[in-house]
């Protein structure tokens, strides 16, 4: 175990000091693009005005013969993008032949533009420790003055089993996302979908003894509930941020909205968008509802010291519900500061 007194010291001489807190800038949607795809890349400057984060993906989804073009495209976009945009990258997995060059290029050639490096298929704290030291060495070489953060994707059963240790492995950790396709394969879940529900995963009412042949009510369940809830606890317990991940059925905008909303309600701060249509869905879901914000404001105004028991609109409010109201208003305020339309909707 590392000496806890050294936890906030740089891991390489000359590297920037780790951050105590994860930056709380909005990251409701992390928009994925393939930097080797010229048509997609051409849309990025415009998309970066709408999406909280744009992410140049170097890993799965990019064909093996375009890995180098994707890496070069990422560096080129990083150095031409409006500085107000937030750029992340997803590098190839740690056992791949590309990752060393991915991380080296991202830090040495675009390290002052890239805020977060997403590491896929993280299985335990050892993966974070490896990347942590390597990034520190490269940061020192590049003379960077702020640290690049790490975001882990949970996509193996072993990663899930170690999620708490992954979350607390380093002060460089920014957050964790769910990788439902790889995770489903790793767990031998019998679904070929990328996230979302499945018609086979459901509950059904008991038969009616008086009418055993009558149709029985049945409903789909969320196969990701346990995973997301555990991930949210691991992240929030260690001061980092939880995110849902990809929803692969691009045409199913209702299914996408429902999955994003379930994640938002459980505590996730954002999700991924794989296609431009998912940016608006993520914005709608991960910006709190104006009616909820109005009620939360009412609670805070009615209970200035946050103590005692009160009735507001027929509902019991106390010290704990006051904290729930603070969560809602703090999020609304941080979004309103950057978005005049939301500021008006929230009256903030
Ligand atoms: C799904 C696809 C193939 C549909 O692509 P399409 O071209 O068929 O869609 P479209 O509706 O026809 O596209 C309309 C226009 O939007 C553009 N476009 C389309 N998408 C984007 C985009 N993302 N960013 C910017 N522009 C985009 C596209 O180029 C086109 O431009 P045009 O009108 O000029 O012809 C396409 O959207 C795409 O490739 N998206 C990104 C996919 C991706 O990043 N996959 C990897 C992440 S998920 C993952 O890895 C799993 C995980 C975590 O690892 C695990 O669960 O294990
Ligand atoms: Mg994956």
UniProtKB/TrEMBL annotation:
UniProt-recorded Gene Ontology molecular function terms:
lyase activity
Q: Which cofactor does it need?
A: Mg(2+)
Signal sequence region:
none
Q: Which domain of life is it from?
A: Bacteria
Task: Write down the SUPFAM superfamilies for this protein, in alphabetical order.
Answer: Phosphoenolpyruvate/pyruvate domain
The segments labelled Disordered in the record are: 196-220
InterPro entries cross-referenced by the UniProt entry: Aldolase/citrate-lyase_domain (IPR005000), Citrate_lyase_beta/mcl1/mcl2 (IPR011206), Pyrv/PenolPyrv_kinase-like_dom (IPR015813), Pyrv_kinase-like_dom_sf (IPR040442)
Q: Record the organism.
A: Conexibacter stalactiti
Q: What is this protein called?
A: CoA ester lyase
Which UniProt keywords are given for this protein, alphabetically ordered?
Lyase, Magnesium, Metal-binding
Q: Which residues form the HpcH/HpaI aldolase/citrate lyase domain?
A: 29-270
């Amino acid at each position: 175990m590392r000496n806890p007194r050294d936890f906030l010291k740089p891991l390489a001489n000359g590297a920037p000091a780790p951050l105590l807190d994860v930056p709380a800038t909005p990251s409701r949607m992390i928009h994925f693009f393939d930097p080797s795809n010229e048509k997609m890349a051409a849309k990025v400057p415009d998309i970066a005005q709408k999406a909280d984060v744009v992410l140049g993906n170097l890993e799965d989804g990019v064909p093996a013969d375009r890995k180098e073009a994707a890496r070069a495209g990422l560096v080129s976009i990083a150095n031409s993008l409006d500085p107000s945009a937030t750029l992340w990258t997803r590098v190839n997995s740690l056992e791949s032949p590309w990752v060393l060059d991915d991380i080296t290029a991202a830090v040495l050639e675009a390290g002052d533009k890239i805020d977060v490096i997403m590491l896929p298929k993280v299985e335990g704290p050892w993966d974070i420790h490896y990347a942590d030291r390597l990034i520190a060495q490269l940061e020192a070489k590049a003379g960077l003055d702020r640290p690049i953060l790490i975001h882990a994707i949970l996509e193996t059963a072993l990663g899930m089993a170690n999620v708490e240790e992954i979350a607390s492995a380093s002060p460089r950790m920014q957050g964790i996302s769910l990788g439902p396709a790889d995770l489903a394969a790793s767990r031998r879940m019998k679904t070929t979908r990328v996230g979302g529900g499945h018609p086979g995963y459901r509950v059904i009412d008991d038969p009616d003894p008086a009418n055993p042949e009558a149709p029985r009510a049945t409903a789909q369940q969320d196969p990701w509930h346990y995973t997301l809830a555990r991930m949210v606890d691991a992240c929030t317990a260690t001061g980092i941020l939880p995110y849902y991940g990809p929803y692969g059925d691009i045409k199913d905008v209702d299914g996408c909205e429902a999955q994003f909303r379930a994640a938002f309600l459980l505590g996730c701060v954002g999700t991924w968008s794989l296609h431009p249509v998912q940016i608006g869905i993520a914005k709608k879901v991960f910006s709190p509802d104006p009616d909820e914000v109005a009620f939360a404001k009412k609670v805070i105004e009615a209970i200035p010291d946050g103590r005692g028991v009160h009735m507001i609109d027929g509902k019991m409010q106390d010290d704990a519900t006051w904290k729930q109201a603070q969560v809602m208003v703090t999020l609304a305020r941080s979004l309103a500061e950057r978005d005049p339309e939301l500021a008006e909707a929230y009256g903030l």
